[in-house]
Amino acid sequence: MNQKQRQRLGSAIVSTMLSFAALSLAAVDKAQAAVLTYNFQVEQGGGSGFFKLSNSSLTGIGSEQIAVGEGRFNTTITASASKNYYDLAGAIALFFQGDFRGLQTGYYEREIREIDLPDVPGGPFYAKYDSRAFWSMATNGVSSNDRWTSYFSGYRETIVSDRNRVLAISDRRIINNAPVSYTLVDTEAEPVPEPITIAGTALALAGLSWLKHQKKIAA
Hints:
- It is elongated and about 70 Å long.
- Strands 3-6-7-8-9-10-1-2-4-5 form a ten-stranded antiparallel sheet, with no helix packed on it.
- The relative contact order is 0.19.
- It has helices spanning 3-31, 195-218, and strands at residues 34-42, 47-54, 63-67, 70-74, 85-87, 92-96, 99-117, 125-140, 149-161, 166-189.
- The chain is 24% helix and 49% strand.
- The protein is an alpha+beta fold and 219 residues long.
């Protein structure tokens, strides 16, 4: 093997070692990642729920935001009579210095139902039910080490009317600044590559480098 061939082989080995190092570092970072599961409770009867998020992007420096991957909020602040929960996927979880502070999310919905009974005595009878609901969660003092407050506000009502006027307002409920408490209930490690997988990948890279080297010699 002449000097030029030895240089080429050395370059291939260095390339493989760098690839192996990069894979190893990626595995270390991945090993630190976890899926956090929180339960939460809203005072004043506002509701309760849970959510999950991955902390793989969390640096622990200053204020940070992470999108919730999965979650559910059970509440009576809804516009639909057949609905009693909201999907929290995509809600924002606020962190400061690596510590969870609270959720930042909200929702507005409206449902209109109409009833027309032309055969009732004194008819035709017509009624429209216009239901609306709005709620939000927010957190104050995110950048403070000791003082922070997470709260919930919500509003719901149904306006009942006929063709001429508003007949009544029903199902009205208002919640203002109800405290929200969070409890970390589970910390599940995210899957990490097995050491044998990393080694196998490195060997495969080494094999590819050697094959390329052999082809160049044959040429």
